[in-house]
Amino acid sequence: MLDLIFLGTSASAPSVHRGLSAQVVSYRDHRFLIDCGEGTQRQILRAGIGFRRLSRVLITHGHLDHILGLAGLLSTFSRWEAIEHVEIWAGRWAMERIRDLIFGVVLRGARPPLEIELIPLEPGVLFEENGFTVSAFPVTHRGPDCFGFLFEEPSRRPFLPEKAAELGVPEGPIRRDLVQGKSVTLPDGRKVSPEEVLGPLRRGARLVHVGDCGRTDNLVQVCHQADTLVIEATYLDFEADLARQFGHLTARQAAELALETGVRQLYLTHISRRYREREVLEEAQEVFPNTVVARDFDHIQIRRPD
After folding, report:
1. Catalytic residue among 65, 212, 227, 296
2. Phi/psi at 303 (nearest 5 deg)?
């Protein structure tokens, strides 16, 4: 199961109820901060999730409403001894701005009190552990080197308790070993293999996160049958020309992508103050009913398909 907390869901500038772009994705002991708009550290505190283990930051692109919060966040980290190492992943153009912000403004030549690792993003797998993967893929927006992120749980074979009961497999460590793919010997001497009590392989939960984005035709493959798609909806369809001009999507375009690719749940973010939330939701739900307009501090869980 993947956890997602929306920390900022506004477009370009904050509103009374929406902060600037930032989300936290968690899987077991791993936490990833996606984007870090101005005020993100306060949103983290308001959400009650704290800073512990928040050592990986993934930046979708280098526009200021997605990176300015890094200055305050790293300043806080430098005073909080529990954080010793931070990884910041970003495209090369974004990384130039981030480097200027951190070393030119925050530190101004001082030695960093914690290890700050700046890692240029490239398409492909960024992180992998025990079958859990985080991958980056290219996204089209204003400026070069924009990225989205795919989070995938490991595939697994479900344990079939009725089969285990038929074979007389007792509950406890023996069943745990079978789940882990180990053959076991029962108290009466019979041997049982995992194949006898495990079902067909099932994929894990898939979360696709897209930041600012100006087209969707190059996202069809990565979004295919995702359990959750998080994507911007900065404009409404009657202002589609403005959306194209500024490299953004309309709510209808986001919904059409969800419909075409068979995702289970669509969450819209990067919401402009020029529209009412209801208007954004209605436009998207006309195309894809299983749509939610995300709000700051919404907390969702992405589970593997049944």
Report:
1. 65
2. -110, 155
